[in-house]
Predict the 3D structure of the following.
Amino acid sequence: MNVKEYIASGIIELYVMGLATESERAEFEQYCTQYPELVAARREFEEKLEKHASENAEHPPVEVKVKLLEAIGSPGSLKSVSNPPKIINYMENSTSASRGSGMSRFAAAASIILILGLAWFGYHQNSQNKELSNANNALKEKLNSTDSILNQIIAEQKVVKDPNVTVVNMVGTQVAPKSSANIYWDSTSANVYLVVKNMPNLPSDKQYQLWALIDGKPKDLGVFDASDNKVILQMKNTQKAQAFAITIEQKGGSPSPTLDKMQSLGKLRQNQ
Amino acid sequence: MGIPITYSEQELILALKGRDDQAFNFLYDNYAGALYSIIKQIVTDNSELASDVLQEVFINIWRKIDTYDQSKGRLFTWMLNIARNASIDTLRSKSYQNSQKNQELPDNVYKGVANQTTHLNVDNIGLRKVLEKLKSEHRVLVELAYFKGFTHEEIAEMMSIPLGTVKTRIRNALLQLRAYLQ
């Protein structure tokens, strides 16, 4: 065979460009094993073709490589896919492979959302628990104070309705015309109760002091504050009293009343 | 991993046959552009379709690398033929034909192909640019054989030219093409 003629026939170009028939291919490959110059000539054309193609290269869209590496990255998908995945717009669905990776991405996204959801739920539950516990404590406190107020009201009612109890209406003096309070005095048990109706607030170092006036002499019955206005106060006992007086004293009370600061005075009826 | 690696063709082939991801990365970075260009020339500048085909081609390269026989040609030649075949298959696929069915179907294949040949928008890229330098009787044959994938027999029939003439003209056309490749 004349190799030069064979080379010049165009068989190399036909073969390299994939246009040779089966028999032409077989023959060409056979000759290549025998004639190194044929291989060299083939190689020369291949390099020309490759160089030309490289010079005319055009950048493909970036997502092709991303998709491709994703497909290559999971070896199973490559072998099992009979139809290779299409490049798809992210909004579209396409072949099984891209859907597969889409599913795993979806699963990953879903599990992240689930974790975030659980974390939020846990956090929310925890803070809700704290809120409920706080609210519960507040309610307990409220209940306790309401209970004690109720008990005091019940006690007050008991005192007020007791037929043995004498009510002394304390009226304001000239120093404090608006001051008023009620004294409930049980002469049989000697218990003295006081209900503040309207007593002006005092400086924090002062307190009101209740006195019983017995034969013109004052007897200390204890101190109270203007803020004790919701409840009935049990004061010190006294067997006797012709009148009751309220004065302003130093905090804790005084041994004898400062009468010029007398706020309120209540006299018992003569027949008592 | 961050260090750029270059391969000789021999090293690249060995690494690819060893399923080396990094080698595949290198292959893509160095050849995707050239293959994308030839795919576009065949699917006539439909970028979306060309992207689909390019992906398919590289997946086929990855799957079929074991069948690549170095004694029969360079790696690029092998890849180029995979790209060409995949492009032609896509053009002939049912889904592509369906997408084109709103267009008027030609009375006979040659007339249709000839019309397409004269109305291409990709005349000035890659091999087609070189093709422009050929005489029209040669150009049409290369167009039909290389870019449309018709066999010599089909071309002879559709153009009413003896098969021997088709073969001779195609060989002459390719030899001229080669001369223009610089």
